[in-house]
Design a protein that fits this description.
By secondary structure, the protein is of the alpha+beta class. The chain has 4 helices and 3 strands. The protein is globular.
Length: 98
């Protein structure tokens, strides 16, 4: 569902790559919502997009929009913490440690 929504936005030329997309994922009650909430911080990595926000709802849907944030020059994810050096906080730590 998320990958289909991302692909539709790419085809429509609303986004260039999934890494510049913010996804709002509506998750119905029950097991699916519990699993999504447990792994919420990992969903953007799973879907290879900029961010994933969960919201409750009765029907599972994925809404995709272009992120207003600048992309990181290393991981290409459009994140709010991209600094003056062009790197997000996660990539800055990886570069500093390496």
């Amino acid at each position: 569902m998320v990958n289909l929504a991302l692909e539709q936005k790419r085809v429509a030329k609303e986004i260039g790559k999934a890494t510049e997309a913010d996804v709002a994922l509506t998750v119905p009650p029950g097991m699916a919502r519990e699993v999504a909430q447990r792994y919420e911080k990992d969903l953007a990595d799973l879907f290879l997009c900029a961010s994933v926000t969960l919201r409750p709802g009765e029907t599972a849907t994925a809404e995709v929009r272009k992120s207003p944030n600048r992309p990181c020059e290393r991981c290409w994810r459009a994140l709010p913490d991209v600094g003056e050096n062009g790197l997000c906080a996660r990539c800055q730590r990886a570069v500093s440690e390496g």
